[in-house]
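Session log. Operator J.P. requested a structure for one protein chain; no other inputs attached. Running the standard single-chain path with C-alpha cell output.
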Amino acid sequence: MGLLTGLMYQYPTEFLCKAWMLVCGYQSYKAIESTDTADDTQWLTFWTIISVVQFAEFWSDLFRRYLPYYNEAKLALLFWLGAMRGANLVYTKLRPLLVKHQDTIDGIAGKHLKQMNK
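Structure written below.
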C-alpha cells in the first residue's frame, strides 16, 4: 500500500478535510473567473471565516487529542461554511467586531507588513 493510500486509511476524516479545502479552493478559482460578483463575495467570506477557524485551531491543537470526533466535527463545520453558506451567517456576527476594531487591526497589520517588506 502506498504512502498516500496508507495516510488516507489512517486519517480518513483529516484527509477529507484537506480534500474539501481543495474543493473550496477550486470553487474560489471558478468564482474569480466568472463575471458574477455574488460568488466572489461568497468565497471571500468563506476564506475570511476560515482564517479565524485556522487561528482558533492553533490553540485547540493543545486539546485536540482529548476531543473525540474532532476531525469529524471539523469536516462538518467546513462543509457547512462552504457548501451551505454558513460562512455568510458567521460573517454577519463577526462583522461588527471587525468594524469596531478595524483601525487597531490595520495599525498592527500595517506595522508587521512594513517590517516584512524591508
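Operator note: The chain has a mean pLDDT of 87.
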